Amino acid sequence: MTTATYDDILRTARRLPVSEQFGLAEALLRGIRSVLIEPAEATPRSGLVPLAGLGDGELQALANAIVSAEKQQQLQGLLAANRSQTLTTSEMETLDALLDEIDQVALLKARALYTLQLRQKASTSQS
What CA–CA distance (Å, rounded) separates 75 from 91? Predict the structure, then answer.
């Protein structure tokens, strides 16, 4: 059995069509939810809870994650229709789901950056 490095996996993923990259990112984000560990102690002042069980490379990849161009275009179209009050019930549901998804990506990015920042402070204080 061969083992691929994290960089090998990223290179391979970058060769996928954008729509498949987004699908892969969604699957990874769903999988990450199962490894998120909320600390038992009080929530930090920032309100963010660090991510557990991920390496620095994985955290950096999450911090750099973006919403696909397709999703951004879909969002812009739905928001324009919403402003002109021409959304159907189905489109409103799609808009709500898309906004929820984008919020989750933004929160995950913030948590990844926060976790990296905490690790950097911890390594600096140990030096």
Answer: 10
